What we know:
This protein is an alpha+beta fold. The chain contains 15 helices and 6 strands. The chain folds into 2 domains: 3-145 and 237-352, no CATH class; 153-235, no CATH class. The two termini are 31 Å apart.
Amino acid sequence: MQEDFHYYATYCAAYISGFDHEESLDIAYSAQFVDLCTKALLNKLGAPLLAATTQSQLELANARTDIIGLQDITRIWASFHFLPRDLYAQKQHRTKRYMRKYRLICGPNGDLLVDTIKLAKNKSLQAIGISMHVLADTWAHMYFAGTPSLVINNTDYDFYEFVKEGEDYTKVQVKFRHSASAPDDLEKHIYTNSILQNNENSIMNLGHGRAGHFPDYSFAKYCYLPAWDDYKEMIKDNPNDYFKAFTQMVYGLKFLRGEYETFEKNTYDLISVSSYEQRIREILEKRQLNACNDWKAFGEELSGETIEDFDVNKYHEEYLNAPANEKDNTSIGKFVKAAIDQKCMVSNKIFESGNGLAGFSKVGK
Length: 365
């Protein structure tokens, strides 16, 4: 997902769930900050590097792909962007090496999602924002894994999108190219992706890089033939999946506010969202590279308040100027604490399942 959903749509979900305007802004900020909190940024702030929730293009280009490097990559991407659905999934006649990656395939409503939401219970607004980012990405990034893998994450020539025309869909072949400076062309169905590398562990094979940003677009409905599913046609319906993500966020946020005693899988707050469903679906189905303006307008109608544009530097001075013994009480300090907790929880769960791809962390044990 992109800023449009992680920041503006998360604000909308938080406000509908009962958080006030300022609280919703803080939750939304942290949800979006997950996509920007690199080691380079943390180093600039003098904050713990363990709290990194993403990697910049430069960091990825320089990343090691030996076991230590792969563990660092997997800890970040599996913990925050490609949360595994089933760490104990079974598939016949596969090697242990294959299964380690197969079990990291992302998807919604797994046990780790429940663990993620419960981990944020009675914690800071920043922890709540992180959990909402993770929840949302389980829907956007399903079928891809947060570890480099050609066999799991590759796409091929047979990749099509369904373009809605009236009440019907037209199936159009997607054209992928590697051109980092050129924007995706929705009219011609041309999308930028990573360069094909036959090395299984190449960083080009991380997550949905082989499909570019296409899986992040809310309007995208597409099909392809993943190798991990024996080349059977897989249909991904983002407009419906993103709507489920939104309603699950509302339910999860109400749990985190204390409205519900438990958080259950496959549960969605359709009632609270029902009066807004048509508006939300219109935003989700609109073919555009960025839906920030539409989500922002919707959020401002909900609260009657102005939603400031996302500013990555918003809380940096507060953290930099805080005395050493007060940094943990700043917004960035709370984000750092929550990010470390999430990363340690997920990496340890992966390790406990018998999978060493994310390493092991003593912090948080």
